[in-house]
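As a warm-up, study this chain.
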Amino acid sequence: MKFIETPLKDVYILEPAVFGDQRGFFMETWNREKFREAGFDLDFVQDNHSRSARGILRGLHFQMEHTQGKLVRVTSGEVFDVAVDLRQSSPTLGQWFGVSLSAENQRMLWVPPGFAHGFYVTSEYADFLYKCTDSYHPASEQTLAWDDPTVGIEWPVPAGETPQLSAKDGEGHNWESCPRFD
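Now compare it with the structure written out below.
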């Protein structure tokens, strides 16, 4: 497993070793000891799986209580995955990072607690899996507006199109009113 630093402090792209032949492939996506050796002492408590069609944008979500770290990957299709740093004490506060995750590139992204997270589906559909370090807590869930101009995420939305959003995601906080972590 390769752990690749990103421009955001504590966010990493992970590239698992993939062993393939004419029958298909095998890869290890989670191994507690290997992660610990790389400096990640994680305890996952919940696994989630979502399927979304092309043009759907989910996020940018975070929880103020039961703050979740997420190890995310795509098992079919492709998404543009984004993390935004919401940690007041971080040198990368307010900055974002985006990366293409797909069944083809088999990359994963580690999004630690204290970040807003979301993705935009660029393929016909995508199956998105994420391991979480804490349970879903709807009472403390928040959303940062996907199109906030201060954050300025460069989503790969085709010209003239608007992503499909849930009602909740369409009413996200702007940067100025967005809650932050200590």
